[in-house]
Amino acid sequence: GRVTCLLGNHELMVLQGDTRYVAKAEFLELAERDGKAGDISAGRRSWTSMYAPNAIRGLRLRRDRQVAVVAGRGRCRTLFVHAGVLPQHVEFDPDHGLQHLNENVLGKIVGGTPERSHLFHDEGPFWYRGYAMNPERKICPLLDRTLRSVRAHQMVIGHTVQDHGVGVRCDGALNIIDVGISRVYGGNLAAWECSEDSGPFAIYPHTSKAFLRPRAGALSPNLEIGEHENFKDLGTW
User: Fold this and answer.
1) Of 2, 84, 168, 235, which residue is the least packed, with the fewest Cβ within 10 Å?
2) Averaged over 77-96, what is the pLDDT?
3) Which residues of 15-41 are buried (b: 16+ CB within 10 A; e: fewer)?
């Protein structure tokens, strides 16, 4: 097997020096380690320094992470990204669009604090919530274009917490796998897997596999599966 670590919005915030979502307990622990017990500002400075361009953690995030990857074969060929890839991110180069996206982001974060870029805003791959929240009549055509550009059958995203297990939209072409695994969101456990024979499915504690093919317009998984009508002609890559 292989583990691929992707950049998400919280990693991006750390690289930007934005510590709004870092628990104060983290700062206090670092301050105590540095002999400045109780000094939150000192702990915040230590935290930020750990993700500087020349620090081990900072180097790893800037050098070893990707924004989006395509993995899997046949029916399981899947685009993985934190919040979502839009057509304009990849469509300009059907053969290398995803590679350019990753290289573009890397070029903007490798030297220090990420530069200003549309890729780091609301419609970028770190923050976009449209795939999870906008009406399907608007987002499914965008999703279809994106998947065709990277020659994938489905996109798997996180970022937007789902209330009822893995979210499924656009006739199964979008799987939203942020189920609230953190105890802050209820500690809900789930895993996503794909079989070339039957397609993607979710695994939940104490239940059988839930195949991720919903009723039309459904936002939560349905146990029945079928072939995505828009991808019957794409074959296997």
Assistant:
1) 2
2) 93
3) beeebeebeeeebbebbeeeebeebee
